[in-house]
Amino acid sequence: MYAIKPENSGEVSMQRTFWRTNALMLLSLILLYNFRQLLQYYSSFSIATAMIHVNQTHLLSQGLLIDLAQFGLLILLLHLIWSLIITLSCRPWFYLIRHEGIRTQIWLIISLSHFTLVFATNAYLFPTSLLGFLRDTPLASPLGLTVLGGLITTQFLWSLYHLIGRNATLGLVMVTLSISYISTSKVDETYDPIDKTSPNVFIIGIDALRPDHLGYRNRDNHFTPNIDKFLSEASIFDETYTPQARTYVAWMSLLSGQYPIKNGARFNLAPPELVQTEFPLIRELKQQGYMTTYAMDERRFNQIDEEYGFDQVVGPKIGAADAIITNIADIPLINLFIKLPLSEILFPYLYMNRAYGKAYDPILFNQTVSSSLSTNKPNFLAVHFCQLHWPYTSKDFIDMDSAKWKGNYNHFMYQALLSKVDEQFHHFMDELMNRGFLENAIVYLVSDHGEGFMLEQDTLANHNINDSSNLNVNAWGHGTNILSQEQSNVLMAYRKFPQGSPSKPQMVSGIFSLIDIAPSLFSELNLSLERSDKAFDGIVLPKERRSKITDITEREVFVESSRPVKSINASFIDDRKVLSETASKYEVRENGRIVMLPQLHNELIGEKQRSIYYKHWQLAMLPDYEELILVDTKMKTWSSITNYQGSAPWVKMLTRLCEHYRDDQGFDKTGQCQNAITESQSMQDNNITNLNREVPSHP
Question: What Pfam families would the database entry show (predicted)?
Fold first, then answer.
């Protein structure tokens, strides 16, 4: 191939080049890491420091150590392969040139060209990456990437030609192109089930979606045109509440049709042995021939998986390593690699993970979910989109014109990301429609909870202007304060797609809960509970705009908080502070998952806030406040019971609240149930006595 082979240009020089390249890689990673730390509010090491609050034996969990070791080794392996590619690219030049100084210059040029291509591609595909500093430059443009990529590819092919010959190089190129074509040109089959009578069932959840930010509540809202269009043709159950404003608990309640006190899911990351992990809904659907799928793009706090009865689960891996890996993974080569399907296996904590927002691709998640659906059986799919969840990051920059800046950063970013999740919803519905899944389908669109931003419009006014009580009735986040109505009030809408008659668009009056979906599906699909199953707490949702069913007009629903965490009830959530405050309450198990310590579970239940809704009233019991609180949700006012004078049936509500939570450890430590009821009975007796005195006696 080449007749002349210069002296001292053999394997020693190539080996030295390989190790020099690795050294340059290591130095670059160190410099880039430090550069990134200058831009971050906190470092990955500070998070590691905060984790000292976790029992050291838990940190030595086999599953956690394996996950972290696998991630570290794969980073090392990828950079070694990259070093090998750079070294091979130098090989033909080294065979042509004797001078070591010129060889070094060639090596530096090739290395810098590779680095530039990777950084420019990272900036183009992931512009919000902290290392995307080449964004908006000619290099990070389609033309720049094409030219630079073409030069580097040509250089590498020349090195392969020099190493293995023409035929082998051409064969390798053809195999690579074939694999690329097959992986990118896959056409999903259309839906053609054997049983055409059973409808597909889709429950689509959008994390933290506030109903008051949608068009049906306020016509001035234009954040979500696609969701608004869907709702314009759906039945909306306007006054719907989540049993608890936390994702895992909300979904557990939705799928079981039961309140947390019955299904056992009282917290995110609750010990699985204390939770009812079998859903009668999923069991019965599987017996009817349904393929059951649960899909979620962020799973740090939601542990629902195949153990809960689903045939398959789509989304990133569940584990304690998630919080660590997503904080250190913003490395250009890793960002590019997780665009490949193979990364689902190699980087399970990063692939399709909304928690790693800089590289999360909502369209990829949509396509993966739709591709997982059966084309010959009816499907049950519960899917949850988390783009609206804190920390409001995205791989693309937000549209500044899509939100209104009023000095509240979190709320500004939330509004901006509403348009992104709206686009994701629109794309997903198009996917289902184009492949025929909506030809006969039931669709529920829900949110698991709302979100508190300490907005002036969310503040409750004190009904008694002379009351000087210092009560916090507004809060940040979700699950932090049950008096914060925007945290618990959620979206729940129903739409039936043909075959048959579709649902009529309407606003259904009444008071509802996410626990109503499971019994409603049982009724619509003619399913039956087994004798050993616990009864549903939810009701069958009405089909009419105004129902005459007593259960609707006279029902009450219950809402509880999660455990109080001061570091979460803040405008900026600092991972270090959250870990410092909460880590001692959790353990990392051998499978690498983090769960609440079982021995503290009941103790933490005693710290919950609890409430009951009836019509437009909410009665709340707060463990750190001596009095009961009554809220008029229509007038947006609150009052302590001792200062309340009105017709609200608070005694009846209190009785039901006490009955519902009476078995909770630590519930009603101050005896408010008994004291208030006794006082009420005494007042009623006095009223009767006074009434008897006023009525003249007959001779």
Answer: Sulfatase
Task: Return d(Cα 592, Cα 583) in angstroms, integer.
Answer: 15
In Å, how far from its chain's centre is CA 552?
A: 31
Q: What pLDDT is recorded for position 581?
A: 59
Backbone Cα Rg of the chain: 30
Q: Tell me which of 323 and 244 has the higher pLDDT.
A: 244
Local confidence band at 176 (pLDDT 50, 70, 90 cut-offs)? confident
Identify the architecture of domain 200-316+354-395+409-458+472-556 in CATH: 3-Layer(aba) Sandwich (3.40)
- 17 close to 107: Cβ distance less than 8 angstroms: yes
Compute the Cα dihedral for 671, 677, 683, 686 and give only its sign: negative
Structure tokens at 13: 């020089």
Please classify residue 142 by burial: count the beta carbons closer than 10 Å to its beta carbon, then call 0-12 exposed, 13-18 middle and 19+ buried: exposed
Strand partners, 115: none
Distance between CA atoms of residues 368 and 362, nearest Å: 10
Angle between helices 247-256 and 280-287 (to 10 degrees): 50
pLDDT, residue 208, reads: 96
- pTM of the entire structure? 0.90
CA distance 35 to 41: 12
Domain residue limits, the chain? 14-182, 200-316+354-395+409-458+472-556, 609-667
Using the structure block, give the residue that is written with the tokens 């039931």: 442
